[in-house]
Amino acid sequence: MWSAAALLALTLAVQTPAQPDPATTAWPDDQPISRLFQNLGADLAALPTVENAAIVGLGGLGALVVHPVDDDLATWAMEAGPSSYTSFGRDFGSGGVQIGAAVVAYVIGRTQQNAPVTHVASDLIRAQALNTVITTGLKYTVRRARPGDGSRTSFPSGHTSSTFASAAVLQSHFGWKVGGPAYALAGFVGWTRVRDHVHFLSDVVMGAALGTMAGRTVTIGHRERVWRVVPTKTPGGVAVYVVRTAGR
To answer: What is the pTM for the complete model shown?
Structure first.
């Protein structure tokens, strides 16, 4: 099962211009594996911002608003029985798939010396690392019982936060043309967790906020480099270029 990160790499890393623009050189911190802990420390230190406070505040408010329907939805999901579509959410939203696919994207970018793909994949890895620390820490602090098996790791939803973290990175770099579908897919993953009777709706809402915060945090200072996908007809068929556009 491929995640957005792997699909991004396979789609965008096929060809780059023969004469590279200096603007496409790699960022100094595009070493998400060898500098995992250094980057994680920097990203944790970067968390306290007004934007992040707003994201978490809205997530917390949303979780409180939907909390009254948590039990009703959980009962409905249990009585409805297994679903034919939720296996996608279980696989696609797992941290292992999201992290693994981001690493695959990074390896492709480095192997092909494709600075844009390398950079986006680096941010995807960093977002997953930061999200894992935040989500796991909160799970074992709150210790809310799951609606299904009763294990105390329900709040927040890790599958949801993981996919929203990736979506936030993609939106930060590529804008809403890519970010919109990515967020929609992340929302679908969140719903499958409710439908599978393994999370409450409020778990999903908070997970969405935390993942978004993680993805937005690791791209602070990177958003002025906006990479645009440009399909171009060539004599041999079609090439896909990744070019730099004006920042936001």
So the answer is: 0.83
